[in-house]
Write a structure and sequence with these properties.
This protein is 28% helix and 30% strand. By secondary structure, the protein is α+β, with helices and mostly antiparallel strands. The N and C termini lie far apart (49 Å).
Length: 362
């Protein structure tokens, strides 16, 4: 297994320092073993009156058992409890805030131990979602609008003629509606509104900037480059867990045109400060794209489907009414054209007419 962890992530270190100080007082040398951020973070804990300096080391003075707060499944301090109203207000689980906003919003279907639960209410103040068992034949999937702002690039590389960059970003995430999807057939059977505030995630990302030539080549065949890139972004997010020990819920992907001057595919960690997943994407992007191309070629659909290039983007917007991504349908043929160009393979000629040509009877 290709496991990834970022031991220098201060969000991780805070929990580890709390647990270590509880076990025994930490000397300055002990704290330095936690890396360059260790001493500074220890002073933050001191300012919060969680540890105290006793002349020999930092000693725990906070409440409770801090190791119990270190969750191996998520690293967020902000968690939502899930309370089952149909079982006497029993707590049946918890989710970190980013996951909660996309899974246990009001009217969502939450799945737990093979059972389906309907989310009756989400209390943002108490940080709890109230659910009750429901016998339904569908599940829900949140639809989010995502905007990325690049703070700083830390590494740059090339993939043939395309640029590849890794760095720090801020991701603005706004869930604004959800899709009801029927079990088995995966047919969309309805939509609903999500009324939640946007979240700002400070994290790390890798972004791929195709050449102007690659984009113009797509246009030459009457297709939209953005729709090909949307398919690519979805594919990368699906394939990356093969190369990194993570889940598709640990990473996000989006196509953005505001930071680089060209439509670019961003792959980001869904954790504050990043956990190293997108960094691994930087190291293995060529292999990831090759695997993605194989996945597309192996799908029997003609124009693209949720199993390969992903689902259409609804024509609604909350953060950016003028977003060029609204209403776009990921284009399988355009994605293959761009992938061939980026990977330095022989040019791919579309086998299926563009949607515009079909509409005109071409």
């Amino acid at each position: 297994e290709n496991a990834v962890i970022d031991p220098g992530n201060p969000h991780i270190l805070l929990g580890q320092l709390r647990a270590a100080a509880f076990e025994k007082p930490l000397s300055p040398t002990d704290v330095e073993d936690f890396g360059e951020f260790g001493p500074g973070l220890m002073h933050i804990l001191s300012d919060n009156e969680e540890v105290v300096w006793d002349g020999y080391g930092w000693r725990w003075k906070g409440r409770g058992f801090p190791a119990a707060q270190v969750n191996l499944r998520n690293m967020s301090d902000n968690t939502f409890s899930i309370v089952d109203l149909s079982a006497g207000n029993k707590v049946i689980g918890s989710l970190d805030e980013p996951s909660a906003f996309q899974q246990i919003y009001e009217q969502a279907i939450y799945m737990h131990e093979g059972e389906t639960y309907f989310v009756r209410k989400m209390d943002l103040q108490q940080r709890v979602s109230f659910v009750e068992k429901a016998d339904v034949d569908y599940y829900t999937q949140s639809i989010t609008e995502i905007k990325v702002q690049v703070h700083e690039s830390s590494e740059e590389g090339r993939l043939n003629d395309s640029n590849l960059v890794h760095g720090d970003v801020a991701v603005n995430i706004k869930p604004y509606m959800f899709r009801k999807i029927k079990f088995g057939s995966r047919d969309s059977i309805g939509y609903g509104k999500i009324d939640l505030p946007p979240q700002i995630l400070e994290t790390t990302a890798t972004w791929l900037i195709p050449t102007v030539q690659a984009l113009n080549n797509v246009r030459k065949y009457g297709r939209e480059p953005l729709e090909g890139l949307l398919g690519m972004a979805n594919i990368i997010a699906e394939v990356l867990p093969v190369f990194v020990m993570c889940d598709t819920s640990d990473i996000g992907s989006v196509v953005d045109v505001t930071n680089t001057g060209l439509p670019s595919v961003f792959i980001y960690d869904k954790y504050p400060g990043g956990l190293g997943f997108s960094r691994r994407a930087f190291d293995h992007m060529e292999e990831i794209l090759q695997a993605g191309l194989e996945m597309i070629n192996g799908c029997t659909c003609e124009i693209g489907c949720p199993s390969c290039v992903g689902s259409p983007i609804p024509p609604f917007s909350q953060l950016d009414p003028d977003s060029t991504a609204r209403g776009r349908i990921p284009d399988k043929e355009a994605a293959k054209m761009i992938l061939h160009e980026i990977l330095g393979l022989p040019a791919y000629i579309p086998q299926i007419p563009a949607a515009s040509e079909i509409a005109m009877g071409g």
